[in-house]
Amino acid sequence: MTATQGPTVRNSGRDGERAPRSVGAVLRGYVALTKPRIIELLLITTIPTMFLAAGGFPSPWLILTTMIGGYLAAGGANALNMYLDRDIDAKMKRTRNRPLVTGEISPRAGLVFGIALSLVSAVWLGLLVNWMSAALAVGAILLYVVFYTMILKRRTSQNIVWGGVAGCMPVLIGWSSVTGTVSWTAVLLFAVIFFWTPPHYWPLAEKFSRDYAEAGVPMLPVVASRRSVSRQMILHTALMIAASLAIIPLGATGWVYGVGAVASGAWFGFLVVRYAMRVHRGLSGKALGPMVVFHGSITYLTVLFVALAIDPFVTL
Predict the structure, then answer these.
(1) What was the pLDDT predicted at 1?
(2) Residue 42 above 90 pLDDT?
(3) Where is the signal peptide (predicted)?
(4) Residues 6+ apart with CB under 8 A from 228
(5) Are 199 and 276 in contact (CB under 8 A)?
């Protein structure tokens, strides 16, 4: 396939007819539309938030229904994102094997699938959890599909900053599923993920900056200098750590979360500062190590929320 050709559509047979696909292959295509690896990260933040809101174990039924509803909502939003972005996905090495690009799933089927999952998620959460959680899930879908994908992504280098609001919503959904309300603790957890998103995503965008440039997506590492990006990463990381520590005086958490927040924040802060120092020295590629920061950000968030989940069960 040349650089000017589109992605290979998997068909064969006479007259270009599509080769028959197994039920398993079709199901895998639809699962891929939901971006399950991203959803795993979202669910990691939801369950610990539920534990904290409940001061222990919520009912297993509530956890199950909230998780299913959250997966449906995030999966629907991701499928709609892939439908809207299928043109630029075809231009990027990282995304050119997505189902709507390869032809495994037709655009129309992907659109219907995304809308259906979104609608089912709202009804599911409303009837089986509460309508506050359902409303927050609908808000998350609209933020990701409309605000981020349709409005911000192709227009501004701050796309991932404000578009990342959608990824912060699971903590609000998790808290409201238990309490029916949203507290200041939940708002600060929201802030942690909001400020975490840029230093999490910009290193990935740095690695694939050529892809984004060719696709015409103005991610910050594409349009700004590395020094500017690294300075903004330090700022967001500092605000993230501050938000995580501001939860402690509210009294909802104990020493386990406190130790986890301080230790994990210091460790990730070190990774970001080291990255900025490497940028200042003019390093690039593997020597710069953007993916170390990317994977480190995932570890940070996991450690922080595992500490949050354990905290209600440990007392001195």
Answers:
(1) 38
(2) no
(3) none
(4) 220
(5) no
Residues 188-234: tens digit of each pLDDT: 999 999 999 999 999 999 999 999 999 999 999 999 999 999 999 99
Domain ranges of the chain: 26-177, 183-316
How would CATH label the architecture of 26-177?
Orthogonal Bundle (1.10)
Interior CA angle at 32 toward 27 and 38, to 5°?
140
| CA distance linking residue 125 with residue 103, whole number of Å | 32
Phi and psi, residue 12, nearest 5°: -160, 175
User: Does 49 score more than 50 pLDDT?
Assistant: yes
Retrieve residue 188's tokens.
């600060």
CATH code for the part of the protein at 183-316:
1.20.120
Residue 120 and residue 156 in contact, taking contact as beta carbons nearer than 8 Å: no
Q: Which of 247, 251, 275, 273 is nearest to 260 (CA)?
A: 247
3-27 exposure pattern, b = at least 16 Cβ within 10 A, e = fewer: eeeebeeeeeeeeeeeeeeeeeeee
